[in-house]
Structures are given as structure tokens and as C-alpha cells.
Amino acid sequence: MGLLTFVVQRILATIPLLIGISIVSFALIVAVPGDYVDGWIQQTMAMTGQSRAELAPQAAAIRADLGLDKPVWVQYWIWISNIVLRGDFGFSYFYNQPVLEVINVRLPRSLGIALVTLIVGQIIGALLGIYAAMNQYKLGDTLATVFAFMGIVIPKFVMSIVILYFLAFVWHSQYIGALNSAEYILQDHWSFGKLWDLFKHVWPVLFISIWAGQAYTLRMMRGNLLDVMNTQYIETARAKGLSRKRVMFVHAIPNALHPVVMNMGARFDYMIKGELEIAIVLGLPTIGPLILTSIAQRDMLVISAIFMMIAVIIVIGNMIADLALALLDPRVRQATIGGDN
Fold first, then answer.
1. What's the burial of 189, exposed, middle or buried (CB within 10 Å: 0-12/13-18/19+)?
2. What is 106-329's CATH number, 2.40.50.140, 1.25.60.10, 1.20.1250.20, 1.10.3720.10?
3. pLDDT of 180-219, one tens digit each?
4. DSSP state for residue 170 in the 8-state scheme
5. Residue 279 in contact with residue 114, Cβ under 8 Å?
6. pTM for this structure?
7. Which of 151, 155, 108 is nearest to 286 (CA)?
8. CA dihedral 57, 62, 63, 67 (to 10 degrees)
9. What are the structural domain ranges in the chain?
10. Which of 14, 90, 312, 330 is least enclosed, having the fewest CB within 10 Å?
């Protein structure tokens, strides 16, 4: 019952945050001069040769139909109502299709890559952190620390440029700027061959994101574990004659993992931003280049939809991380429930 209460409280706590995210997302639309109809006018003038005055009656009718002639708060209500009730994020005049259709192919790719790099990066970082803590001030600890700091201090776009140079001019790779080879593009089902082909295209993103992502986890896990190893209950366990492995893997490591698990929600945000940055440099058809193109074309409905979706996903990710931490440590949910009471 306590866990259910904790989950309900966390869900209720996210509602005001989601409302705030929707307001900020809508503010991106209204903050930029012009609207969808202005883009439609420019596009129509270029295609048909009509003047702005000739298109004015049609533009006024479209504005009235879309509610763009109404006050801002009414426009917001129409916009958020369409999203919540119909899943309609508006229409992209640049891509000439609904915003959701523009996003729904690229966004899952970015989220999938970010999720894989988050999980693998956290596991590698935690394992290296445990190894470094168990070999404090030895050669392994020093090498792990250097490896971690290199992942932190080297910008991801610099790593991307270096790998892109080797792919293009040294290895003459054919796997640049795409997610699949020609023979797998039209294949609508997954197979081992298609999965391996996908890996050959996206391994630079995975490598750079995992290297950068594990670095912080390694340092956190090392520091947490060293702190836990100096606590009183660990000294008591040693005094009772428990083996070093039992002390480490049964008592010390599970407690040192708490901050790492709690930090996974925040790291997901970092992984998404890292994937966007790397994908822009490598030209992969994920959400990063789409954001760049939409900014250049001032397609604000697409940008605001991407911002809102990613923000909501990050909020959900943090909530899942809180739930995982509550499952790992009952004291967390007890403190939350008790604090609210």
C-alpha cells in the first residue's frame, strides 16, 4: 500500500510540471514573429506568383479556421486541447504534413539510441567505479580515472568530427549519414542482418555517448562506494568475520548504487542531448538534424512539439528512476509519504 501511495503522489506531483512544460512549449510558438499562415502565404506566393493582397482573404479565413485571430490564452487552450484529446500537434507548412507525422519516425530513433546508451553507459560506469574503488590509488584506479575524465572533458562534437574524418577519409566507410543500407531500407520487419546493419551505421553515436555518459557514473560510483566502505555498519560486518566479497557485494555496493539509480533520470536528459549533438555532426536521420532544419525554416510548431515531447519523456524518466529507487530502498518512499503527511 505504501508503494502505491508513493506512485500516486509522484504522478500527482508531475501534473503541475507538465502544465508548465506545455505553457513554455506554446510560448515558443507565439514568441517568434509570424505564424503558420505567414509561412503558407510565402510558400503560395513562391509557387503561384500571387501577391500578398490577393491571398489576404484566404489567409484571413485560414486564421479564423485555426483560431489564430483569437487571444493568446484561447489559442493555447485550442492547441493543448487538440494535443490531449486528438493527439494533433498542428501542421508543418515546411514539410507539408502534420507535425506528428514529421516527428513520429525520427523521435523513436533518438529515444532508442539514448536509452541504449543510458543503460549501457550506467552499467559500464558502475562496474568501472566499483573496480576503481576496490583498487584505490592503484594503477587500475588511475587508468579508470583518466578514462573517465577524458570522456568528460572532450566535447562530443569534437569526438564526432574525429570519427567522421576517419570514416570518410581513412576507412572510406559507406555507413555515413544513414541508419540502414539500401537493401534494408524497405524491409519492414527486423532481422539479425538488419539489426547488425543498423549497428554498423550508429556505432559512432553509441561509442561517443557511452564514453561520455559512463564517465560521470564512474566517478559517482567510486566516490559513493569509498564513502560507504568507511561507514560503521561496514566496519561491523568486517568485525563479524564476513568475507570481503560478501561485505562488498551484499552490503556496500547495493547502498552505493542508490545515488546512481536516482541519477538515471537526469542522465537520460544528458544522453538525449548528446545524441542530438552527435547526430547533427554525422548527419543521421534522427531528431537532431530535424531540429536544426526546423529552426532554419522557423517551423515553430515542429520545434515546440519536439521540445514538449522530450520534456515529457524526461519527466516520465525521472519518475521511473524515483520508482526504481523506492523499490531498491524502502526508506525513500517512507520518507516521501511521511514528509507529505
1. exposed
2. 1.10.3720.10
3. 887 887 777 778 888 898 898 899 999 998 888 888 889 8
4. I
5. no
6. 0.79
7. 108
8. 140
9. 35-88, 106-329
10. 330
Position 171: which residue type?
Answer: W
Compute φ and ψ for 329, nearest 5 degrees: -135, 105
CB 213 within 8 A of CB 121: yes
d(CA 191, CA 180): 12
Question: pLDDT value at position 335?
Answer: 57
The Cα 103–Cα 97 span in angstroms is 10
Residue 270 near residue 122 (C-beta atoms within 8 A):
no
Q: Could you tell me if 36 and 90 are in contact, meaning their C-beta atoms sit under 8 angstroms apart?
A: yes
C-alpha cell of 254? 547495493
Name the 3-class secondary structure at 91: strand
pLDDT mean across residues, the chain: 83
Q: How far apart are CA 336 and CA 15, in angstroms?
A: 17
Residues of the chain with pLDDT under 70: 1-3, 328-341
User: CA–CA separation, 329 vs 57, rounded Å?
Assistant: 64
